[in-house]
């Protein structure tokens, strides 16, 4: 360390030492005693002084260093007191882990939509769609394919439309995002996105995944007991009643008719209840103008499940209740499919589609019209149903669903109440 001892005549006197810390404190005493170390004399002249820019640099440097240190300290303090968010990685072999830490897809939807059921924001939908890994094909149809996909540890169903079916894809995504549509017995919508790599376009619709598959698949594999039959029937009726119901209010929901209700468009959940899916042909009722919002596509539904008035083309397209009555007719046929597979005392029927014994596997409109409208035939009721009070009641409900006169058919809400009473009586029996 050095000690500046001042200026003497025309020279600077500087004494240095490095024996121990702060040793220059003793240099002054040694100088006074004239026993100090050898002094180095540096000639003094005006030229030996610092230039203006060197002086500025000498002053500004330490100030800048202090400012940087203060800013860095404030930054570290702010980060320490603010919650930090990390974007989770999405490896291809992602384990079964909850999405976003402890938040599942359902939790995310409930938080984001605030209970409105109108769907996730568009950017969130696209972000989810881009992170899905397709695992296996689980179904095919006229529109395209259905895959089981994975999104950060959760299974999802991915319905991939061909580019020819863009209207169906757009319509279904639009209907699913209707305000207040979300319901336990309506297939849960997650996201919609279009994938275009320049050579082909895929239209994705992402929904909840149910490993039991469609009601058609489930009934082909399994039978149901009496409580299971009622649980399935009641859940479908509840979903249909919600679909048909208009909810009035600022967050209201228009009445919606499905128009393609069948066992292949109903999913079986893990708890044995069902959820109605495939809303690509659905129509909405605009109560303000009393008009029906009919989609612009060429599909008209599934011929086997068409109501007589649809087959005869006598349906009033301007009257919304006409479409609801068509849904009720199809629901009656679905009840028949479920009831055939009801195992009572070890006795049940093999699975069959409605009118299996009257028309071919892929009937034409004319063939269905002849059977349903001209001959006025309906699926046959097995004799064994008369011996079981529950099956007997179910047979009465389905007959009231498929009346030739559409106005005489039950409403979805009436069916729901009847089946709820039937479920309550079954519980009392237990």
TrEMBL record:
Names of required cofactors: Mn(2+); Mg(2+)
User: Membrane-spanning residues where?
Assistant: 55-77
Q: Which UniProt keywords apply?
A: ATP-binding, Kinase, Magnesium, Membrane, Metal-binding, Nucleotide-binding, Receptor, Serine/threonine-protein kinase, Signal, Transferase, Transmembrane, Transmembrane helix
Concerning SMART domains, the annotation shows: GS, S_TKc
Which Gene3D superfamilies does this UniProt record tie to the protein?
Phosphorylase Kinase, domain 1 (3.30.200.20), Transferase(Phosphotransferase) domain 1 (1.10.510.10)
The Gene Ontology terms for molecular function here are: ATP binding; metal ion binding; transmembrane receptor protein serine/threonine kinase activity
Which part of the chain is the GS domain? 103-131
Query: Could you tell me where this protein is found in the cell?
Result: Membrane
Quote the SUPFAM superfamilies the UniProt record gives: Protein kinase-like (PK-like)
Q: Which residues form the Protein kinase domain?
A: 132-428
Give Gene Ontology CC terms: membrane
Q: Name the Enzyme Commission number(s) assigned to this protein.
A: 2.7.11.30
Give the CDD domains listed for this entry. Answer: STKc_TGFbR1_ACVR1b_ACVR1c
Q: Which family does it belong to?
A: Belongs to the protein kinase superfamily. TKL Ser/Thr protein kinase family. TGFB receptor subfamily.
Under which name does UniProt file this protein?
Answer: receptor protein serine/threonine kinase
The source organism is Ranatra chinensis
């Amino acid at each position: 360390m050095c000690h500046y001892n001042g200026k003497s005549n025309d020279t600077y006197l500087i004494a240095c030492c490095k024996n121990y810390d702060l040793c220059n404190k003793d240099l002054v005493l040694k100088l006074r005693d004239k026993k100090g170390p050898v002094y180095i004399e540096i000639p003094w002249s005006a030229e030996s002084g610092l230039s203006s820019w060197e002086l500025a640099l000498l002053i500004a440097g330490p100030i800048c260093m202090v400012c940087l240190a203060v800013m860095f300290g404030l930054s570290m303090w702010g980060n320490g007191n603010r919650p930090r968010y990390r974007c989770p990685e999405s490896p291809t072999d992602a384990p079964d882990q909850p999405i976003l830490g402890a938040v599942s897809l359902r939790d995310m939807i409930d938080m984001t939509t605030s209970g409105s059921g109108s769907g996730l924001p568009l950017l969130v939908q696209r972000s989810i769609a881009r992170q899905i890994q397709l695992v296996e094909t689980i179904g095919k149809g006229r529109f395209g394919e259905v895959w089981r996909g994975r999104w950060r540890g959760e299974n999802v169903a991915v319905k991939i439309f061909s580019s020819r079916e863009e209207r169906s894809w757009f319509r279904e995504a639009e209907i699913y995002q209707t305000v207040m549509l979300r319901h336990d017995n309506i297939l849960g919508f997650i996201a919609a996105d279009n994938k275009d790599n320049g050579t082909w376009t895929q239209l994705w619709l992402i929904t909840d995944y149910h490993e039991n598959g469609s009601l058609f698949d489930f009934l082909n594999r399994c039978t149901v007991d009496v409580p299971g039959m009622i649980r399935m029937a009641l859940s479908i009726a509840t979903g249909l009643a919600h679909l048909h119901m208009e909810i009035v209010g600022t967050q209201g929901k228009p009445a919606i008719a499905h128009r393609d209700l069948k066992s292949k468009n109903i999913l079986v959940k893990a708890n044995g209840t069902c959820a109605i899916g495939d809303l690509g042909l659905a129509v909405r009722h605009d109560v303000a103008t009393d008009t029906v919002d009919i989609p612009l596509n060429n599909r008209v539904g599934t011929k086997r499940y068409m109501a007589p008035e649809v087959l005869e083309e006598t349906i009033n397209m301007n009257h919304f209740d006409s479409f609801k009555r068509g849904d009720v007719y199809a629901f009656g046929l679905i009840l028949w499919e479920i009831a055939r597979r009801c195992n009572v005392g070890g006795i049940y029927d093999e699975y069959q589609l409605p009118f299996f014994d009257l028309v071919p596997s892929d009937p034409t409109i004319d063939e269905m019209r002849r059977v349903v409208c001209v001959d006025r035939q309906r699926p046959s009721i097995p004799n064994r149903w008369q011996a079981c009070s529950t099956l007997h009641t179910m047979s009465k409900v389905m007959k009231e669903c498929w009346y030739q006169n559409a106005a005489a058919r039950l409403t979805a809400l009436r069916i729901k109440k009847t089946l709820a009473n039937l479920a309550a009586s079954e519980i009392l029996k237990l």
